[in-house]
Amino acid sequence: MSWIKTKRPRVLAVIVAALVGTMVGLSAITPAQAATARNGICETGEFCLYYNSDQQGSVSDFKGSIPTYGTGSTCYEYKGSGAGKGQCVKNNAASAKNLTGKYVTVFYKSNYAGTIDNFSPGSAANLRAYLKNDNAGHRVGVSGSASANLEYGLYHSSSARVNAYYDGYVNTPGRHEGIDIAKSIGSPVYSLTSGKVIRKTEGSRGSGGLSTLAIYNSSLNKTVVYLHLDPYNGLSVGSTVSKGSKIGYEDWRGVSKSGAAHTHFEMRPGYQTGAAKSVNDYTLSNPIPTGFWAARGYNACCRYS
After folding, report:
1. Residue 17, domain member (yes or no)
2. Cα-based distances in Å from 66 to 137, 263, 283
3. Residue 147 confidence (pLDDT)
4. Containing domain of residue 197, as a range?
5. Domain CATH number, residue 240
6. Do 162 and 287 belong to one domain?
7. What is d(CA 96, CA 145) in angstroms, rounded to the nearest whole number?
8. What is the average pLDDT across 3-30?
9. Are the C-beta atoms of 114 and 100 separated by less than 8 Å?
10. For residue range 215-263, what is the model confidence (pLDDT) as tens digits?
11. pLDDT at 63 over 60
12. How far apart are alpha carbons 94 and 89 in whole angstroms?
């Protein structure tokens, strides 16, 4: 009897330990169901492109940013079953699903340039007409929060719209070195970076009255130039500007008609007092700005009009 009494708890302990081990093992299985990139299944944590509209046809699933989908034997292919399986993703995507938890921007050109479309966390939609079957890469944003989008940073409003993105100097009829975002005339405009005002020209409404506000950040050795806005009266050359501080109001200074009002801004290397094209600087020195803005905490975004 003493053997039974003393042994039984040990047996129970073994059984309990086995059950606990089983439960731990089962709990360890769950995370294993997380995304496995490039397996042809759209899973949590991935951005997925589909060969057909409405998330139909073969799928190509990605965990991170892809500057170019590539061509030929080295291209990223559609992996899932269905129409398009085995074909290159580049210039062949019709719809997408975003399960990354962050904003994802799709680009018309390789290396994050050209026309863009954007997918908010959890969204599934067809690519806009200008990118359907004309897409070269995508970038996963720095945050799932709408406040990280460039248009929010510029206007502190989610209702602003990207009108034109950096096009890599190949756009017709002329190159576009910056990004255009519009909200409405009189909307406050806020600085996307900190720095010092090195140029301020107020201009006047109409195509001949271009306004310019150039803000230089010495630690980055970069200048952000804003065009077309009505500069804030409290600013002058030499003023120190903090990130997120008000620098003016949306206007149409240097724009032919009020209906085209927007704020153009571009990042230029070094100390620059004007936007490249506005000062007839045709040296193609402005780098693609996507990485710069991401490093500042912004997503290249958002709803291209």
Report:
1. no
2. 5, 29, 28
3. 85
4. 158-295
5. 2.70.70.10
6. yes
7. 19
8. 40
9. no
10. 999 999 999 999 999 999 999 999 999 999 999 999 999 999 999 999 9
11. yes
12. 10
Residue that terminates a domain, selected from 77, 107, 141: 141
What contacts 218, CB < 8 A, 6 or more positions away?
A: 195, 196
Give me the pLDDT at residue 205, please: 96
Strands of the sheet with 188-190, listed across from one edge: 188-190, 246-249, 230-231
Residue 11 in tokens = 């047996």
Same domain, 221 and 137: no
User: Distances from the Cα of 67 to the Cαs of 62, 112, 145, in angstroms?
Assistant: 12, 6, 22
- How far apart are the C-alpha atoms of 16 and 55, rounded to whole Å? 47
